[in-house]
Amino acid sequence: MLQNGPGLGGQKLNGQVIIAELLRNMELGAFEMAYSTLLPCVFSVYLNPEDYTRLRGVFQFVADDARRALGARVAELNNVPSRFALKKKQSREYRIAAKDWVIEFFADNESAVPVGDVEIHSELSESAEPTFRGTRTTLMDREPSVTGSVRPATGPTETRKQGDRIFAEIRYEDESGPQLFLVTQNQVRIGRGAEDEPMDLAIYTNDEVSREHMQLRRDAATGQFFIVDRSTNGTWLDGKRLKRDQELPLPERAEIGLADVLTLVFQVRR
User: Fold this and answer.
1) Second label for 135, Cα 20 to 30 Å away, from 64, 98, 146, 154?
2) Residues 232-253 pLDDT 10s
3) Structural domains of the chain sorted by starting position, each given as residue range(s) with its CATH number in brackets
4) C-alpha distance from residue 232 to each of 36, 211, 265 (Å)
5) Number of CB atoms found within 10 A of residue 234's CB
């Protein structure tokens, strides 16, 4: 969980705090490659409705200042060798996959974001593919609200549609931090995914996890969940490796290991 930021202690949320959180989100969402590092460049900033109403008249000014600060930080990073560059004795270029930074502000209408807090969802490019994303961060010490993939940067959306029934939850931590996936459908495809193979739950991790690693299926009549392994490097259910393509009942609470890389904690909701 992320540490508390400067906006705590009863202070009102202001532009300086928002910009500092954008900078922190950008660096936490860095995507390392062989010779360069991509930084998130598309940011959706969610505020409590009270803060959103109070600040809505200055969002454009905050965004303009933030673009200057983000650009200055990238220039600074490109003048300072990264810890990866020191190990490999090579320079690593920091850049973004767009012509400019995209920063949009939204009111959180589900009251998941407290007054004085800010929740930022970022993407590495404007295409916003599930396997090509940045990260999610909050100012206060709390878990970002999310169902499924990252909220799109094209407009405000709720974390889930009102009236959707939550059948189960899946908690895990991948390379973008702690995650919570709320299961509202009867079939969930899980894996790294790809541009031509989107997943219901896209895991941000290395290629030890298959593009489609496993599936969960819920029997609508009984509510029973089932699991099936589709991977190359294996899926473990409570410590026991599953046979590929063999569907088995899933306990109401279970730990699911993906290729010895990460663990999903599955829990049925009643």
Assistant:
1) 64
2) 999 999 999 999 999 999 999 9
3) 15-138 (3.30.2320.60), 168-268 (2.60.200.20)
4) 29, 10, 21
5) 18
